[in-house]
Write a structure and sequence with these properties.
By secondary structure, the chain is mostly helical. The protein has a single domain, classed as Four Helix Bundle (Hemerythrin (Met), subunit A). The protein has 8 helices and no strands. Helix 3 runs antiparallel to helix 7 and helix 4 runs antiparallel to helix 6.
């Protein structure tokens, strides 16, 4: 099992050298993993410490939002198939995917993570988790922009997809841009 994991990591482009110099965006993945893992922290401060009783309706809404995020992520992962990679560096020779979840937004896996994070923040009523959501949104926006610079270079049709498809969350400043950024 460990050798299969090592093979998969190498196929995605992970290497010890990349962990040292971020050649394929390894640091973005590490930051993303740290923020996702931090969602396991308890609510801080808990709503009760602020004098609130967090309503069941909000806890349920958070749970439903989290589940929607899981569904969006599953659809995005299935649509990508063998092109799936956690790194912002596209897999060499991978086709450009613009159908399914990728017809609604260019980064449905990032959208999925944000929906899950939002769900946790709503369910727990935690200022800490709201901060984690904002930090994750910032990190994923920057990671997506790095990824898109490479996609613009590798796929001539990507600029057209960018012009007509929202980036991560439609109409949200910082999470929706519709032009190729400078590939430098």
């Amino acid at each position: 099992m460990l050798s299969a994991l090592g093979d998969r990591l190498r196929a995605w482009g992970f290497s010890w050298e990349g962990l040292r110099d971020n050649r394929h965006g390894e640091w973005w993945v590490l930051g993303q993993m740290a923020l996702i893992t931090a969602h396991w922290l308890p609510p801080t401060p808990p709503p009760s410490a602020l004098g609130f009783h967090w309503p069941l309706a909000l806890r349920l809404l958070g749970g439903v939002t989290f589940l929607i995020g899981v569904v969006v992520g599953a659809q995005g992962a299935l649509n990508l198939g063998d092109s799936l990679s956690p790194l912002p560096e596209p897999i060499p020779g991978a086709p450009l995917v613009t159908e399914g979840a990728y017809a609604r937004c260019r980064h449905p896996l990032y959208q999925s993570l944000l929906l899950c994070s939002l769900g946790v923040a709503i369910a727990l009523g935690s200022l800490l988790h709201l901060g984690l959501l904002l930090a994750l949104a910032t990190l994923l926006s920057l990671k997506a922009r790095r990824e898109e610079r490479r996609l613009c270079l590798l796929h001539p049709g990507y600029a057209e997809a960018m012009a007509s498809t929202p980036a991560i969350v439609p109409f949200v400043p910082g999470l929706d841009w519709r032009v190729c950024s400078d590939p430098a």
